Amino acid sequence: MKIALIGFGSVGRGKSGIISAGGIDMRAVLDRKKATGMCGTPGISAWDVITTADYDLLIEVTPTDATTGEPALTYIREALAAGRHVVTSNKGPIAVAFHELSRLAAEKNVQLRYEATVCGAVPIMKALEHGLAGNEIIKISGVFNGTCNYILTRMADEGLTYQQALMEARELGYAEADPTYDVQGIDAAIKLVILANTVWGLSTTLDDVDITGIDSLTLAALELADGQECTIRLIGEIIPKKNILRISPRIMPKNHPLVVSGTLNAVMVDTDMAGEVTLIGKGAGSRETASAIISDVLFIRDYHVKRS
Ligand SMILES: NC(=O)c1ccc[n+]([C@@H]2O[C@H](COP(=O)([O-])OP(=O)(O)OC[C@H]3O[C@@H](n4cnc5c(N)ncnc54)[C@H](OP(=O)(O)O)[C@@H]3O)[C@@H](O)[C@H]2O)c1
Residue 151 in contact with residue 183, Cβ under 8 Å? Predict the structure, then answer.
């Protein structure tokens, strides 16, 4: 199976492209990117690769734009329309245009997979699609943002203020220079939109999510929770039958399965037959995200071989 890779940063390891029928020496490309900041041949763009290269599968790992989904949305649409499978870790296009893209994939008899978009290495999509197949999914709740979870853990464990914990998260590389997306709950809300639309077939957008972040949470609130053997976590929750789609800081018993530490993510799925199933793992990181992408690629390889 021939693969086109768009995005060569933390996950995909720019913008210049390489097209080679004889294969690509990845070590040489990595060295060139390190030395020059470019991985390919000036003059060959990502769009050239997508539209002119001979490939079966596009791995799309460019930066996320949660409002427009671009440029990834155009890349993915083009690849699917040309009958290519797509794997992406990019939340933008899946949150913005899941139904359009999945219809296009079905029409062209190709796969669109996006395991890495929700909770990085945690195989939540495959658990929902395969492991829990046949169950009615009643509710999904979880810790969907590792940066917020790290900040809350440090505030509770070490008595740090929100600002001190945020500064520490930045120094350790867990928080961006501009942490707005994370601490205001927007990143977690995008993941809820993806789950709501893909699991229940809803047509939700970010505007439908009731969002409260952790940026105005005080140490006093955490201390109060601590006195009751509880703590506070930023919890995302979807209960379609009750029209609940929200992200908010919640007081949780310390022994609750969703009370995970540090940068971990956790997702609890409430089902009719299997009961509650909880998955815990790393929600970000280049290797962890690559793990989810590779599992999608291997899934597609099997599908591709069976189809041909
Ligand atoms: N890192 C994680 O832990 C993680 C976890 C889950 C999901 N994700 C998602 O995975 C995607 C990739 O993340 P990342 O951390 O690898 O990002 P990154 O380090 O910023 O890398 C992005 C790559 O895309 C390239 N790029 C930028 N604009 C482009 C364009 N218009 N056309 C083609 N290529 C373009 C960049 O090229 P230059 O190098 O030339 O700028 C870079 O190689 C994002 O959507 C992110 O949200 C990441």
Answer: yes
- Same domain? 274 vs 291: no
Which of the residues 108, 191, 254, 282 is marked catalytic?
191
pLDDT averaged over every residue in the chain: 93
E strands in 182-288: 210-211, 230-239, 244-253, 264-271, 276-282
Give the CATH number for residue 238.
Answer: 3.30.360.10
Residues 232 and 128 in one domain: yes
> What DSSP state is assigned to residue 129?
I
Q: Whose CA is nearest to atom 13 of ligand 1?
A: 11
Model confidence band, residue 164 (pLDDT cutoffs 50, 70, 90): very high
Task: With CA atoms as reference, report the closest residue to 62 among 17, 20, 125.
Answer: 17
pTM above threshold 0.85:
yes
| Of 5, 6, 15, 114, best ligand 1 pocket probe by most atoms within 8 Å of the beta carbon | 15
Range of the domain at 237: 124-283
